[in-house]
Write a structure and sequence with these properties.
Number of strands of chain B: 0
Oligomer: heterodimer
Number of helices of chain A: 8
Number of strands of chain A: 0
Number of helices of chain B: 8
Helix content of chain B: over 70%
Largest sheet of chain A: none
Shape of chain B: elongated
Order of helices and strands of chain A: HHHHHHHH
Structural class of chain A: mainly alpha
CATH superfamily of chain A: Winged helix-like DNA-binding domain superfamily/Winged helix DNA-binding domain
Distance between the termini of chain A: 49 Å
């Protein structure tokens, strides 16, 4: 019988907890894309995004033995990445400059490439305007599809605060879209 | 539910397909709110998904290698650190072992000396006890004293003098030739 992705992933976690580097490497490979996508949206800089992704996985390796499974493993990694991003943003200051580097997308279709580039630019422009906490909540709920309850647990904020932060972020997104005509 | 409440709630459900029943009911009756919802849906669609921001396979592969290398360096520095700790502790450990060893030898030496002294004290004590009890037979005293070995005679004499009371001395002087005994 074939093992499901989830079972396989749980096996890798257990093996990595026992110190198996090969199993950990598989986890890194599986989680690298969503983590870089997150760190890039948060920092708007590909070098910082890569550094933060690396730091995140090194921390995951250092602390994986302490992971007790109270939260989903992916959420636990997101929490580490979120903290890394917030610390980085605190160090760098509130203002983030849009990076000239581009993420390399998988598609070779030029028309899709243009659309994606446009989409990416719009979202990054919008996210750059958001305060850090709103940016985190928007990223975790809209892109990572975490529930508000999970985000509250992960960020240590009250559920009501998390919902308010999300509402404020979406209101700003709507205002920005109306202003720039993205919604059409 | 009024329009203000509905539009306030819709922000919370941005990007989600399933809405609570009360929201759905209001949207069925209110065109203005329905328009607001369609606008948000279009925006959510244009915001893409997380996958739109994924790096390509090459970059991912490079990053996996980078992470592995970083962990290798970390583990290596940990081992080196442990080795360095041992290097700095070895001389200290040797000094402690030497000190403990010498202390132990000294202690055993002192312990042996005490045993020897204790034996002398025991002998002299028995003599004193007998003299105090006045049970001492005058004929027994020289033989008792001869039981002292030649080695501990000198110590015994000192100890006997140290431990003897004035009353004992007077008794001994009265009944024995103390000078000859000592």
């Amino acid at each position: 019988m074939l093992k499901t992705d989830k079972t396989l992933f749980n096996e890798w976690i257990e093996e990595a907890q026992a110190g198996n580097r090969e199993a950990f490497s598989k986890i890194v490979k599986k989680m690298m894309k969503p983590i870089i996508a997150m760190t890039y949206k948060m920092t708007q800089n590909i070098d910082s995004a890569q550094d933060l992704a690396q730091d995140t996985f090194v921390s995951v390796w250092q602390n994986i033995a302490n992971f007790r499974g109270e939260a989903k493993f992916e959420n636990w990694i997101y929490r580490i990445a979120t903290n890394k991003c917030l610390n980085h943003l605190k160090k760098e200051g509130k203002n983030i400059a849009l990076d000239n580097h581009e993420l390399i997308y998988s598609t070779n279709d030029p028309s899709k490439e243009i659309l994606k580039r446009e989409l990416k630019e719009n979202i990054l422009t919008f996210m750059a305007q958001l305060p850090q906490q709103q940016r985190i909540v928007f990223e975790l709920h809209f892109y990572k599809e975490l529930t508000f309850e999970n985000i509250a647990q992960l960020t240590g904020k009250a559920l009501g605060t998390v919902k308010t932060l999300y509402r404020e972020a979406i209101a700003k997104l709507r205002a920005t879209a109306l202003k720039k005509g993205w919604h059409r | 539910m009024n329009c203000k409440q509905c539009q306030h709630q819709l922000l919370l459900y941005f990007g989600q397909k399933e809405l609570p029943e009360d929201l759905q009911e209001h949207l069925l009756e209110c065109n203005s709110c329905k328009k607001h919802k369609d606008e948000l849906d279009a925006l959510a669609e244009k915001s893409g998904s997380d996958k739109d921001f994924y790096p390509d396979d090459y970059m991912t592969e490079q990053m996996v290698k980078r992470v592995n290398k970083a962990i290798d360096n970390l583990e290596h520095s940990k081992i080196t650190k442990t080795k360095n700790i041992w290097h700095s502790y070895i001389p200290a450990a040797a000094a402690v072992i030497l000190f403990v060893g010498l202390s132990l030898i000294g202690y055993l030496y002192v312990l042996k000396g005490n045993d020897h002294q204790q034996a002398t004290i025991n002998n002299s004590d028995s003599l004193i006890v007998q003299t105090e009890n006045k049970d001492l037979n005058t004929e027994d005293l020289p033989s008792l004293l001869f039981e002292f070995t030649a080695e501990n005679q000198e110590n015994a004499r000192d100890l006997l003098i140290d431990n003897i009371t004035d009353e004992d001395l007077k008794y001994l002087e009265k009944n024995f030739d103390v000078g000859e005994i000592l």
